[in-house]
Amino acid sequence: MPLIIYYRKNSSKTKIMINLLFCCVLFSLDIVPQNVLWDHYTIIPPLGEVKSIVASPLSLLVISDNNLLVFEKYSLKLKKTLHFNDQNIYLLAYDRYSNEFWILGEKSIIRLTMPTYTLREYPVPEQAERLGVSRNYLYLDGVKNFSFDKRNGVTSLIQVFPEGIEWYKKTGDADIKKYPYLTPYYYFDEAEETQTPFARFRITALYDDGMDIYVGTRGYGILKYNKISWQKKRIIYGPLDLHIRQVKKFDDKVYFVSHLGLSFFTAGTDEWHYHRFVRGINNILLSNKELIITLGGEISRIDKGMTFTISTLTTDVLCLSADETSFYIGTSTGLYKLYKGTNDPMQFGPEGYPIYCVLPADGQIYAGGEFGFYRYDRDKKKWNKELNFGVKEIVQIKDVLYLLSTNNQLIKYRQEEDTDTNWVLLPYFNIYDIDSDDEVLYCATFAGIYYYEPDTELYKVIYNLPRIKYDYVFVTGKNIISVSDSAIYSLPIEYRD
C-alpha cells in the first residue's frame, strides 16, 4: 500500500516530519532473518562461545558464536534462535526506554523489537568496545566516539560522552575477577560427560542482573547463579558443535553425532546432554537396546557414559549397519561382517577399496562403495555388482532403492530379474545427502532442501527452509533436520509444503 502524507501548506512541522521519514528510509535497512515471527523452522544452536549476555524483565538474550538466543528469563526455556550469516555480532544492550534490544555487529547496529522479532539494521563506522544507551541516543566507544540518534539512525562523531549513560561492554578478565566465588573462572565436564575430564571451559561473558548473575562460557553452555543462595543452574542449549555427521532417533531420544562427540535430547523437551570423545565418532546405531558407535577403527558400546570395545579393525570404519544376527562394517579397505556376541570381524564381499554404505534387507544385502554398487543374495550366498557407479548412500522407500552416487547424482534402483536395466538416473545435479520418511525422498542441495515424490516423479522445494546450500539432511520422527556449513535447521514435516 502506498504511503500517503497529508500536510498543510507552509507547515514547518510537517516538513520536519517528512525529512525525518526520509532519513529513516535512507539510514535503516531490513535485514535477514526476515519474518522471524512467522518462520516454521527453528535453528538448533551448537555450544559455542558466548560473547555477550543481557536481560530485560522478561527475556534473557545471549550471543553464542553468530547466533542470537532468546530465552524466557525465569524458566530459561529457549524460545527463539536467530542466525546472522553476513556479519559478526558481538555485543548486546537492553534499552529500557523503549523495551528494545540493540545488537552490535562489526558493520552495523541492529534494533530488535520484541515480541515480533522485528529487526532493523543501521550502518556504523567502526567496531566499539562499549555501547551506551540513553533516552534518545546510543553511544559507541571505540577508537573514536560516536553518537547514534535512535529516532533517525544518524551517526555523528563526538568528543565527549554526556552524563547519565547506561553502558554495556565486552567482558574482560577484570570483570570476571570481581566475583571471587566463580574461582577458578573455568569449568570441567562431569565424569559421565567426557573422555577428557581435565579439559577447561573458561568464562567468556558475564551479566549481573541484581539478584542473579549469568555466566557464559566457551563450549560449556550458560550458568545462572542466585547471588543470595548461590544455587546454580546450567543451560546446555544445543549439540557440542556444528560439524554434524549423523542424526538418529532411537525410541524417544534424538542423537547428534558430531566432531566433538555425541549429543542428545529427549523428543518433546529441550534438555540436552552430551558425551565428549577424544576421537570423533563416525557412526551410531541401536542394537539390542544398546548404543553402538565407531571411533576410527574401533566398534564400541556405550553404557552410562562409559565405552566398552566390541571389536577393533586395522582400518577406519566408514559405515555401520546391523540386522538381527550381525554387524556390517564398511571400511576404507572393504566390507566386513561381525556376528553379534563375537569380536572377530571377517571379510565379507567387496574388498580393497572404500565401502560407504550398507543396507541389510529381506533376502538381500546392498553395499555402496567407491567403484560400484553391490547386491548380496542371502539364499544363493553370492555377491553381484549391480552398477559401476560409485555410491555413497542408500535409502529405501517401499520396494525401491534410491542411491546417491559419489559424484552427487541420484539413481533410482529396483531389483528385478526380467528387465534389461533395473536402474535409472534421475534428472538433477549436486545433491549432497538424502534421507526419507518412507513416503518421499529428501535431498540436500546447493539451493535448499528438495523432496522427490515417487508417485509423481517430481522434485519440490521446501519453501519453509532457507534457500541455501545444505550438506546433510536427516529425518527424525516428525522433523526434518538440515545442516549447512553455518547452522542447523529443524522443520516439522507438516510444514513441508
TrEMBL record:
UniProt-listed InterPro entries: Quino_amine_DH_bsu (IPR011044), WD40/YVTN_repeat-like_dom_sf (IPR015943)
Keywords: Membrane, Transmembrane, Transmembrane helix
Superkingdom of this protein's organism: Bacteria
UniProt keyword annotation of Cell membrane present: no
Entry keyword annotation includes Transmembrane helix: yes
Bilayer-spanning residue ranges: 16-33
Protein name as annotated: WD40 repeat domain-containing protein
Naturally occurring in which organism (per UniProt): candidate division WOR-3 bacterium
Lineage: Bacteria, Bacteria division WOR-3
